[in-house]
Amino acid sequence: MADPEKWTSEGFFRYLISIDKTMRNRSFAFLLGAGASRPSGIPTGAELVQTWLKELRQRLDLDPSSRAMEEWATAEALGIPGFDYQRAAAFYPEVFERRFRYDPEQGYAYLENIMEGKEPSFGYSILAQVLAKTRHSIVITTNFDDLVADALFIYTGTHPLVCGHESLTGFIRTQMRRPLVAKVHRDLLLAPRNDANATSELAPGWEGALRALLKQYEMVVIGYGGNDGSLMSLLEKLRPDDFAGRVLWCYHEKDGAPDQRILNLLASKHGVMTPIDGFDELMLELGSRLEFGLLADEIEKQAKNRAEAYRESFQKIQKRVKPGEQAKVSEAAKDVRRAVAKLVEAQPGWWGWELKARAEPDPEKREQIYRAGLKEFPNSPELMCNFAIFLTDVRKNHDEAEQFYRQALKLKPDDAHVMGHLANLLTDVRKNHDEAERLYRRALEMEPDNATRLGNFAVFLTRVRKNHDEAERLYRRALELAPDNAVAMGNFASFLTGVRKNHDEAEQLYRRALELEPDAAWLMGNFANFLTGVRKNDDEAERLYRRALELEPDDASVMGNFANFLTGVRKNHDEAERLYRRALELEPDKADVMANFAIFLTQVRKRHEEAEVLHRHTLELAPDHAAVMGNYAAFLLARGKISEAKDLAGRAWLLCASEGTQTAAEVALYRGLMSRIEKNDDSPALGRLKTLLTSGFGRGAWSFDDVLAAAADKLSEDEKRLYAALAAAILDADKVIELEAFPRWKELAPIALDVPWPKDL
Question: Is 171 in the same domain as 265?
Fold first, then answer.
């Protein structure tokens, strides 16, 4: 019989790529033998045969020094009929059976040991991409190892169907939804068929499954020596038209041409043979032809993400069992707490210091732990970043926090985690929004699929840039990537209700987020705000506020919002005042709580001097906050300080007019009242207010009683009624229609919000 065709490497690859691009109805299946596993550190069958022969000789040869191995290793000495040392690899099953005679379990353990801990070589990274990304998704193998399945998960995140036993062949289809790994000699852990009797013929079920596959998939053979009787016998008895296309047999050129049995097979099936340098080299070339890039950066990223997820998972357990969190703790919980403490104490490195800091409830001692950790690990950007977060969130030491963030970035310039947190500080504390935006965008360039950073940047875009469309795209993208990310979900819910007025979807997201993070106090507080402000479900809101404060008794934000609720809804002014004062003890510079407490002191307690001190301090803390300016302007107007009030109202209008909010409507009302007090025309203010009321905006609780009273003696009776109606319409959209009863209002022309005010106003 004539020898089969021998193709060049170039001809072989051109053929593969041509089929890939032009024959969509044909796919390739890869038949892998032991030669494909050799670069991963797993010996080939030929190498194992030599090892086992040496071990047998050590046991059986009474005079090993008198002759060479090939002289001793005969059919008679081994008890293997027909054994030929020159063809020793072809007797792999018989040698295995002889080496582990009467104890095959020892043989399986031997194989398990040599395969333990082996990582897929470079070639498997390419093969995994071919299997996962193309239609060429079938591997047939005589190997016991898991290199193909491991590579698929490591390099592509794909789980294949691994058919490691003949009982599973019924699940094999010619059209598979995911890659298939067909182990014709079973999986190593499923009593592999490795002896002479087992490998002489295929187990029931395999022949039909393989016939169906080879009819549809063109076979590429790599690293297979044909030394088992089972698979090779099946290939020999198939007719040429039982194969899709040609049989493409790759052989290691340094080892010489395939043996005669393989040459006869290829010649009879119209197959071809191609010399290769090795499995890794073959796959490297194939990856280049398919334009697959190198994966080192992606592997590092996946490893980093996996490590971060691991740490976060443990830290959540640590937080749940933290001492002092629960009044009564079960014995099981105490056992978990002890186990956590033991693991924390034993953890070395920077993360060990981080865990110790997290376990310490006292802020002073926690800071000491961080500083001690940084003395031992002065170049740990991870520990620096976490300490900076603590300094900002707990100690309010923003200057030192910023120094640590910037030092961490010097040590690790491409650390997206540090960039994101520094951006948060720059926008929230420094009001350096331009640098913050650059950092947010740079962090997302580094990690475009990080849901947390997408959500944080979306918050920035809404709150600072008012770029709501891009923000919504980022929120939705974050939830596509991480559908169970409760933080992104809660922030998106706040966006939907506050910006889009999509209250139904917002409520769904709030409730889903709380299912995922049932003990997230900040989330409970935000949902409680929604329930009372939008749904008017005050009872559920109060339950959530109180539960949030049980979980986080020192959370000034929840405390301040609950105080607003208690005074505005429950009229429980005493408890509200206690909460306001406690929140400001915890965070003396918390501007939103301070502003609301100032309003409380004015409207409820009538302590105007203390309120004014707080108003001024709030304005120092938030000099560009329209609502803060508007509230203070209202306070000054009620006190008769018109000049100061006019200045603040003018500045507030510039900040809030374009947003069309309730704050803008309030400021327009104040400017109208101040015009009438000074006996000027109030039409410029009321015309803008008409535009706002016509357009609509979100409403919140407020009181205009003091400002209306301050202007009362300067207004006619008709003007008093009109301004009272305007105040009611600002607070209740249903009251806007009642303004049509006022002739002046009906005649008033709306004024666009971007039209400049008259200079004297």
Answer: yes
